[in-house]
Amino acid sequence: MSVIVLGSTGQLATHLRELMPQARFMGRADADLSDAAALYRKLVDARPSFIVNAAAYTAVDRAESEPALAWAVNADAPAAMARAAAKLDVPLVHVSTDYVFGGQSGEPWKVGDPVAPINLYGRTKLAGELAVSTLCAKHWILRTSWVFSEHGANFVKTMLRLAAQRPELRVVNDQKGIPTYARDLARLIVTLATAPSANETMAYGLHHATGGPAVTWRDFAEAIVDAGYRHGLLATRVPVTGIPTSQFPTPARRPANSVLASGGFPAGLEFDWKGGLERVIGILKETSTRSGSAGN
Fold first, then answer.
1. Domains in the chain, start-ordered, CATH in brackets?
2. Is residue 229 annotated as a catalytic residue, yes or no?
3. Mind listing the pLDDT tens digit for each residue in 202-229?
């Protein structure tokens, strides 16, 4: 099997590289996602047997001031991937987001619930979903949320850095979602890519790929601080105070509730963000210890 992964250095792509080193990873130098026509030709010429889109324009706030680039990467590029996959008659995995929902409901969002994104990033990701589902029959669209990892820049690392510098953290407490460990998502994608009968492993179509208890950003930050303190990454367990979104204005609006109702994964592939957080903190502690020893 010949697998092409669009994306090379992001959180998800890095875990995919660890779990599926035989795949071909195409970063910015190999595939310009802002040039859909060139991307289509490159994929068709490469003739893979499986395509994974692990790349996206994910700067939610910056998207408001860079709409053309966000649309190109999040909508036009997935459309090109879908057209290439359809021409080659191969499966495509496309990763999407909880931000396709508006957040008005108090219940977890099901796959078939109406979408109504409230920021430009969410609108571009929804357009990518529609392109993939329309243009490619053999597709999995995996909506996920609040992705974190030991790799790259993310909320976990930001909270650890701030907790080491400040006597208190003030974090939004009226936005709710489910964190997702990027490695859990990577394991699901690898299972799909390597299954003898892909569609029987998990039916083609739209899925919510996350899991575990829903939390607010404040709750998540407190869990991070607690784990960091227990693992010795933080000298003190600083308090985490919840604040309303109105006290932390951003260029892009966020949904108040982006909790995804998920399930139906292949056996042994349940998502566990709490376990993932413990793993991430442990790895960061080990890395910190090695760096400290190397500097002595």
1. 3-153+178-214+257-272 (3.40.50.720)
2. no
3. 999 999 999 999 999 999 999 999 999 9
